[in-house]
Design goal:
The chain is an alpha+beta fold. It has two domains: 93 residues, Peroxidase, domain 1 (Orthogonal Bundle), CATH 1.10.520; 72 residues, no CATH class. A four-stranded mixed β-sheet has the order 2-1-3-4, sandwiched between helices. Helix 7 links the parallel strand 1 and strand 2.
Length: 175
């Protein structure tokens, strides 16, 4: 089964739950936290560590802190061998949930946290551009120095300072 199909299955299961908003939030937080933590991600990708040990570790770590369905779906993800696809799964799950709510998902990269006013302004501009509601998935990456990158579907609007500096570097190296 493809990662995309697996992700769609997760969304269908979560969507049928009484606590769907909570489980959606929790599973995305857990997947993103693991994917952002190199050592944890390495453990999930390591086929030498049995799935049962990974599931046990997640159960001990999360225990009663998350909904039981969240823990079950994390266990399912691990047992089905998708532990090395957490970022991709998280991305697909976010897109499917936004789609189910009649919205597009915009992935925004910024060097700093964006306040609510700025996020709402971005949503308004994107809604005007695409003609539908937009949900933001914001990533803070200090290495981009400044500016924003906004991706909606296959379209990317790149206004990052790091991208402009890379362009200048390429021009200077070409001479």
């Amino acid at each position: 089964m493809s990662t995309k199909s697996f992700s769609k299955g997760l969304v269908e299961i979560i969507g049928s739950s009484e606590n769907s908003e909570r489980v959606e939030s929790e599973i995305l937080q857990v997947f993103n936290a693991i994917a952002d933590h190199k050592e944890a991600l390495d453990v999930f990708r390591n086929f030498g560590v049995p799935a049962e040990k990974k599931i046990e570790a997640m159960s001990n770590l999360l225990g009663k802190r998350v909904d039981s369905l969240t823990l079950d779906l994390i266990s399912l993800t691990i047992s089905q061998g998708y532990g090395d696809n957490l970022l991709e799964i998280s991305s697909f799950v976010s897109e499917y949930f936004a789609e189910n709510r009649g919205a597009s998902l915009a992935k925004v990269v910024s060097a700093i946290e964006l306040d609510d006013k700025t996020q709402n302004s971005i949503k308004r501009v994107l809604k005007k551009k695409f003609g539908r509601k937009v949900e933001l998935q914001v990533e803070v990456d200090e290495s981009v120095i400044g500016g924003l990158s906004v991706s909606v579907g296959e379209r990317t609007f790149d206004g990052l300072v790091s991208s402009r500096l890379q362009e200048v570097k390429s021009v200077l190296e070409g001479r």
